[in-house]
Hints:
The complex is a heterodimer of chains A (193) and B (200).
Chain A: H1 2-11, H2 14-21, H3 24-44, H4 48-55, H5 62-75, H6 78-86, H7 88-109, H8 115-138, H9 149-176, E1 185-186, E2 191-192
Antiparallel strand pairs in A: 1-2
Chain B: H1 2-23, H2 32-42, E1 51-54, E2 59-61, E3 70-75, H3 82-99, E4 107-112, H4 120-130, E5 137-142, H5 145-155, E6 159-161, E7 167-169, E8 173-176, E9 182-186, H6 191-197
Parallel strand pairs in B: 3-4, 4-5
Antiparallel strand pairs in B: 1-2, 1-5, 3-8, 6-7, 8-9
Amino acid sequence: MIPGLLLYAVLVMPPVAAWLEGSMVGHMLIQIPLLALAGGLVARGTVGGRRAVFAGFNAGGCPGLLVAVFAAAVWMLPRMLDAALRSPLVELAKLTTVPLLVGVPLALSWPLLPPVARGFVWANLISHAAVLGWLYTVAPSRLCTRYLFDQQATVGVALLIVAMALLVGWGWFVIVGAPIRLWSYDRTRRQLI
Amino acid sequence: MRLRVVLATIAVITAGVATFAAVTDGFRAATSEAAWRLAVAERPHPLPDATLVDQSGRAFRLSALRGRPVLIEFFYTSCPAICGLLASQFQAGFERLIAEPERPEVRLLSVSFDPERDTVMELADYAARLGVDGRIWRVARASYSAELQSLLDAFGVIVLPDGAGGFIHNTAIYLVDAEGRLARIYDPDAAERAIAELGA
């Protein structure tokens, strides 16, 4: 819970927010995902009893996942990025709803989802990142009026890289049966091996 | 338990679709530019009465153009890219207007958003190159920088320095109706279509 709160506190600091929002990649692919991550970390740190309040409505994780999907879709709209830069109220809405409506429900719902549903989510995430990346790369006009044209193309390339990375990670998980670990930690020997 | 989950799913989908519809003007506008065009088409917007100076050095107010529709574009003379397309569009529209004996009372106005470099002399050169007549088609700059910004804001034109001495800007053709309101926004390659719709 504490790491999530700390991450959130850093992200909402005006200089940090302004720095991340200074570029389209920073705004769309770093700030918003990190806000969701902060919400998710806080949710994972909450006690089980609080989760149980929603558990009856979120058995299987589908409603919670849908909340996260809709909220994320709204904040990925180019006009919402523009609006957040233009209006302090919309910016405030973004800083509160992304952790609460994307990060929290995703963290609480993901463990409840059956493996088939998780695979469906991964497949859609990868395909959408790839298609969006391609669209941003080839779009003839600016989608966000507050960002330069070359930043839009950079977002497109970054989304394609994200799609490739997710594909490799997911493929590894499917084939090997465990997430990619860049290192492993032996708790008994308390050292990196 | 299962009923609660089904009801929760239906409620989330309903709320999600409604929210998405609300922030996209009924699934019609995902970008700010599209939303602005839609808003203008549905409800004409008033404009500030900015003072402009044309290529001959004549000062005039935007309100002086009321009484007939005006097609307006924003540009800067040293633009290496899209402003040239707009200029050629206005040129084609202008030629169509002067060729029509029964032409509609449409006026064309090109407004520079680079008052630093686009002096009256620069505008005069630019106008001469394009064959601007000064009556049907005028090229102008804002007299005061504060008025220029309010004019750009009112039209929804966003101009950002490109870091190389030029500007990145959204490009369109703006129709100001006879009452002096911003009434429609066309694509930058639609000058002739705009004129055709006005009756030429």
